[in-house]
Design brief:
Elements lengths: L3 H7 L9 H8 L2 H9 L28 H7 L3 H9 L14 H7 L3 H9 L14 H7 L3 H32 L2
């Protein structure tokens, strides 16, 4: 039986501001990842959530990233799927506004991009620099990923516009 004290240790941050779950996801250790989750590790805890951590203790780019961000950054597809099935948010945004989809696109992780899209990752979300994931991929020279994401984003925007038009015409009908 796992106690609250044990669960707290599972979710404790190390000197880098990472939990054991973050390390398992980034390093592709799916067995350890599943074990941590079975004992109650929290998939929603971000890295370095406390700004009082020493600046030299962790990479700045790892502020407020989730285990899912780290898994797709490293191309650990199996770990990413495990995290999503355990409730990880595919649209979680880090300190810069980047989602796991932005992260996978930036690092050229084509299979992770495809998987995130299958799990309904939102390609229209913007970073704080106003970049969609397809723009991030294009900036990094990953044209195949950029094309895939651009096509998917446009398809979703068209779907969303169509839905808004239906709702608008329905309200217009009621107002006659």
């Amino acid at each position: 039986m796992v106690t609250n004290k044990d669960t707290a240790a599972l979710n404790a941050l190390d000197h880098k501001g990472w939990t054991p779950l973050h390390h398992a996801a980034f390093n592709g250790n799916s067995v350890y990842l599943e074990l941590l989750l079975s004992y109650g590790a929290n998939v929603h805890i971000p890295t370095n959530p406390d700004s009082t951590l020493r600046d030299d203790a962790a990479d700045f780019k790892d502020r407020s990233t989730t285990a899912l961000h780290l898994a797709v950054r490293a191309g650990n597809l199996g770990c990413a799927v495990i995290l999503i099935n355990a409730g990880a948010n595919v649209n979680a945004q880090d300190w810069s506004g980047a989602t796991p989809l932005h992260e996978a696109a930036y690092h050229g992780q084509h299979t992770c991009v495809g998987m995130l899209l299958e799990y309904n990752a939102d390609g229209t979300l913007l970073t704080k620099c106003n970049k969609t994931a397809d723009r991030v991929a294009l900036d990094q020279g990953f044209t195949t990923i950029a094309t895939l994401l651009s096509r998917e984003r446009k398809k979703n925007e068209t779907k969303q516009q169509s839905q808004e038009n239906k709702e608008s015409s329905w309200w217009s009908f009621l107002c006659l």
